[in-house]
Amino acid sequence: MSETNPANLDGHDSDEHGHGGLGKYLAVFVCLCVLTGASFFTYSDLWPYKDTPAVGWIFMMAVSCTKAMLVMLCFMHLWWEANWKYVLTFPAALMSVFLVLMLIPDVGLRTRKYSEQRWQHAAEPEVPASAADRDPEHAEDHHDGTHANQHN
Amino acid sequence: MGHDESGHHDHLKLEYHPALPMSNGKLIVWLFLSTEIMFFAGLIGTYVVLRFGVPTGTWPTPADVHLSEPIGAFNTFVLICSSVTVVLCLEACRARQAKMAKCWLFLTFLLGSVFLGVKLYEYNQKFAHGIYPRKPRSLIHERANLEYAAALRFPLKAKRDKLDKKKAELGVLPTTENGESQESNEKQVEGRLEESEEQDLKKYNQLLSGVVEWAEYVATDPATPEAERRDVLVQLAKYVSGPGHGHGHAETDVSPFAGQLDQERAELEAEQARLEDEQRRLLVARQNNADSEAAQKADIQSDLAIVESRLKRISHRMDGIGLLRELKHGINEDHHMHLPIVLPSGNMWASTYFLLTGFHAIHVVVGLIVFAIGMCMRLGPEKAGFIENTGLYWHFVDLVWIFLFPLLYLF
Fold first, then answer.
1. Which of A107, B207, B244, B364 has the greatest CB tally within 10 Å of its CB?
2. Tell me: the pLDDT tens digits for B324-373?
């Protein structure tokens, strides 16, 4: 809080903006490209966890969070800002994560508690047999869901 | 503050002390961005909940909804590039290189436009396949049931009837359901449909009687086993929209449905032969019983009618199989039709996709407007605050896309 002259606040004084620099920006840019490639890698055939999609999801979210941090810290100059940055970013970010996490058990997993009648109006799983294999809890929900053999 | 100690008693010197070490504009932008974080958190939270709340295994894969991951990755790359250019614009602005700053800003504007252009192309792809967020235009059906079969039948019938009417106006008798009278009549008439229209008419008839109505017939026939009734409709949906993911038949010449269609054809040929024997036997019986009682004659006649109608259906189905056998992807794709498709949870997918990408695209448009305004200014060091604030907003737009890309394209 040493800087109090408003004239300097608008970035007129280039001395106080010694951070950044082309090299740093390009390094972050390369990192972002590599990370995009990393999350895109989960789409390729080489990705080893094809049968457990949750691994890919967690990996992609971790990559996205890393990218977001890089953009915020470097491009948005948060790294060099004073302590106000915590006030403005942390509560909002925490509430966001909290909101998403709180929505999942009640609403996100609602189909686990669907009644028979509700299922009749739900979308029909395309391959219910294999889905039922993976999730035995759903096997009864999909009642007569054992079609999908291909001949007429 | 402290004027007593400094000893300047002659005049009161007031200084402005901002609460935070930054300009008001930047403070406002940061406050705005923190509300934006919550706004997009709400949207993404809704998406996550709806995405994982669908019945297991029904959420459409990117291939189902014609979503191209490489295009999405390209757009991510474009936005990252634009983030770099806008930050370089700020640097140039501070270094008193107004021309350079304008160049970087223009480049950012260009990259943002490329992003929007790609988005527009993607939206068009969805619309072309009948994927809309709402019903009147959306062609998505949740289930392959009789309602779906009827939804297929109506547009086909409308198209067929339109061509039939045109043909009648040109002086040709309309074709019957199966299109049999077509060939016999064609020769006598001068005014006739164009070659392509004639082919279309044949195609519609084959699709109607040999594909859709056959499926409806099998699905409602009491003789059909319960499981098969559903299968035939599920298969009908597959013929329309293609075999779906995991069947990369794009390069090969073999129809993805060839195997099962050939099997079906063999089964139907066997039944056809059996029914033709039956028909011959009945015809002979009718001949022999010409003098016998009326009741007996009526029996034979009704049996014959059943056999003949079954034979007619089978011959339609054979035509239909011939048409399906040529498919590479699906009826919609190969014949440029706009028929309803079955996509479990597809309506939910469309709603969330258009909502999320739409709100993001609105933010991109706003950013582009601000860039356009910036390009009308001289970007000297006095404009560094403006560029910085614009840049902050633009980085946030990039940030949202960083989360949207994996969520929408790769999950």
1. B207
2. 888 888 888 888 888 999 888 898 899 999 999 999 999 999 999 999 99
Of A10-19, B238-247, B256-265, give the lowest mean pLDDT range: A10-19
State the ipTM, two decimals.
0.75
* 8 Å CB contact between B179 and B201: yes
Nearest chain B residue to A18 by CA distance is B91
Q: Decide if B387 contacts B90 (C-beta within 8 A).
A: yes
| Cα–Cα nearest to B370, from B107, B153, B105, B100 | B105
Least confident among B163-167, B242-246, B304-308? B242-246
What's the pLDDT at A46?
A: 86
- 3-state SS, residue B176: coil
What amino acid is encoded at B255 in this protein? S
Backbone angle region of B18, left / alpha / beta, with phi > 0 → left and psi within -120 to 50 → alpha? beta
| Token output for B347 | 């309506």
Which residues in chain A are contacts of B15 at CB distance < 8 A?
4
Give the closest-approach CA distance of B49 to chain A in angstroms.
4
This prediction's pTM: 0.78
Residues of A in contact with B403 (CB under 8 A): 64, 68
Over residues A112-126, the pLDDT tens digits come to 777 777 777 776 664
Residue count of chain A: 152
Tell me the backbone φ, ψ of residue B140, rounded to 5 degrees: -80, 130
Closest alpha carbon to B238 in B216, B256, B220, B264:
B256
Chain A contact for B16, CB < 8 A? Answer: yes
Q: What is the pLDDT of residue A16?
A: 44
Long-range Cβ pairs for the range B309-312 (8 Å, 24+): B310/B275, B311/B272, B311/B275, B311/B276, B311/B279, B312/B178
Strand, helix or coil for residue B341: strand
CA within 13 Å, CB half, B219: 20
- The C-alpha atoms of residue A114 and residue A100 are separated, in whole angstroms, by 21
Alpha carbon of B199: minimum distance to chain A alpha carbons (Å): 27
Which CA distances in Å does B132 have to A123, B74, B237, B357? 17, 24, 18, 13
Question: What average pLDDT does the structure give for chain B?
Answer: 85
Q: Tokens in use for B250?
A: 């794009």
pLDDT digit string, tens, across residues B113-156 = 999 999 999 999 999 988 998 878 889 988 888 889 999 999 99
| Rounded Cα distance, B302 and B283, in Å | 12
Contact across the interface for A122 and B388, Cβ inside 8 Å: no
Taking a C-beta distance cutoff of 8 angstroms, is the pair B332, B64 a contact? no
B264-273: burial string, b at 16+ Cβ within 10 Å, e else = bbeebeeebe
